[in-house]
Amino acid sequence: MAALQELGKAAAVLTAWSQNLGAPGLEYPAALKGSGIPQRSALLLTGLLVGVPTKSAHMDGISTSAVIPEQSINATVAILENMGEALGTGTFAGQALAEVVGAGFYDNTKTDFSALLSEADAGRFNLGLSGDDAINAMLGVLALAPRVKGDPAVMAKSAAFDAITYSSTKPTILLSNEADRLVFAGNSQLYVDNARAAYEARLATWQAKYDAARTSTAKEALIPSKPKWNTMALYALTPETYTKFTAAGLPDLAGAPAVSGVGHQSFTEKQMMTWVRMLATSADTGRVPTWTGAASQLAKVPYMNTDEFYQPSLLKYNK
Q: How far is CA 2 from CA 95, 99, 142, 310, in A?
């Protein structure tokens, strides 16, 4: 019940912002009241610190109008649109986890909020954040805000749920939306990075055994056990621009969403079937396709990433 009440408070604020776009000045915390910083700047900062996508179902982070005069304000509305469902999922997921392991699974006593805002984001979204002075003022208030201290025993129980070792040798192909509002695309990148580290450790161990082998027969016997890289991440991207505006210049949040790259694990039929076919082929061969081979298939599917070195926005909490 407490979780539902807290979610209701957040929903009321987000509903108000959806109507006035967060234009009124901050009323809370008291230190920022009368500062002239609009509420939307605090929302934008919150989204950037958390890592909420700056694109959403209806906001592309680029398009402008008389009411949305700057790209960073478009991105702010995107965070607004994404935040509602993200908060709901986070609130009830947290409640569910607490019912299993107990209260106190989270601790932010050592979190440096300032470090979560990159220089790139501070520059790109500077106008939406109301400038450097406003950024420093908001981060200053956050630094002094009360912290949540976790229970070490409960935190250990929670961590035990994530016992992944990245030791699988089976083909793994991930598919993510660029602007998934719930499971951020950075999760795929984190998985690939951790899998790569585990693979390189296995490869180094194998190489040491291979180098230590004294005879050609011994070396040949080791060849079949040589680790192979078997992980690939695919990304469904958004169109470059897709925000629609009403005659009054307001974003049309009730219209059709972007055709690709948004929503939670919602993909086009072509995107999904391409992924399924790659999985089926990999299951038969025991290996993921080469990037050259994959790219030739992906190029035929609208909005699928074909850049081998594409990297989504990384997670803020890289664990």
A: 9, 13, 24, 41
CB 166 within 8 A of CB 195: yes
pLDDT, tens digit, for every residue of 51-63? 999 999 999 999 9
Considering the entire predicted model, what is its pTM? 0.90
| Alpha carbons 201 and 196: distance in angstroms, whole number | 9
User: Domain boundary residue among 104, 136, 159?
Assistant: 159
CB contact at 8 A, 288 and 282: yes
Q: What is the pLDDT of residues 189-200, one digit of tens each?
A: 999 999 999 999
Tokens of residue 269, six digits? 């039929």
Tell me if 310 is assigned to some domain.
Answer: no
How far is the C-alpha of 92 from the C-alpha of 70, rounded, in Å? 34
Q: How many CB atoms lie within 10 A of CB 47?
A: 22
289 CB neighbour count, 10 Å cutoff:
17
Angle at which helices 39-50 and 71-101 cross, to 10° = 60
Write out pLDDT tens, residues 88-134: 888 888 888 889 999 999 899 999 999 999 999 999 999 999 999 99
Domain count, the chain: 2
- What is the spatial distance between Cα 275 and Cα 293, in angstroms, rounded to a whole number? 13
